[in-house]
Amino acid sequence: MICNECEESQAFPKDIVELESSLGIPREELMVDMEKGKRCILCGSLLEQGAIAQPIEKDSTKLTTGEK
C-alpha cells in the first residue's frame, strides 16, 4: 500500500536501512507491517484508512452515460 502523500509526490522508495534508523523500528517489524498493508511501502509511515491511495479500477464492460 502507498500513502496519498507518496502517490501525489510520485516518491521513490527509501532504503529499508534508512527507514529503520529514521523511524527507530526494527527492519523485521517494518517489513511485516508493510506486507500486511499497515505501512506505506515507500516512506514507511503508518497508514490510516483515509490516507491510503485507492487503486483506479477500469471496467470496460460498463459505459457511463450520465443517465439515471
What's the short version?
With 68 residues, this protein is mainly alpha-helical. It is 34% helix and 0% strand. It has helices at residues 4-9, 16-23, 27-35.
General description of the model:
The protein is mainly α and about 70 residues long. The chain has one domain (about 5-50). About 35% of the residues lie in helices and about 0% in strands. The protein is built from 3 helices and no strands. It has helices spanning about 5-10, 15-25, 25-35. The longest helix is centred in the middle third of the chain and has 9 residues, at about 25-35. The chain is globular and about 25 Å long. The N and C termini lie far apart (about 35 Å). The relative contact order is 0.24.
- Integer-rounded radius of gyration: 16 Å
Distance between the termini: 34 Å
Number of helices: 3
Number of strands: 0
Q: What percent strand?
A: under 5%
Q: Globular, elongated, flat, extended or rod-shaped: what is the shape? A: globular
Classify the helix fraction into a percent range. Answer: 25-40%
Largest sheet: none
Low-pLDDT segments, ≥5 res: none
Q: How many domains make up the 3D coordinates?
A: 1
Mean pLDDT: 80
Indicate the structural class.
mainly alpha
Q: Helix and strand string, N-terminal first?
A: HHH
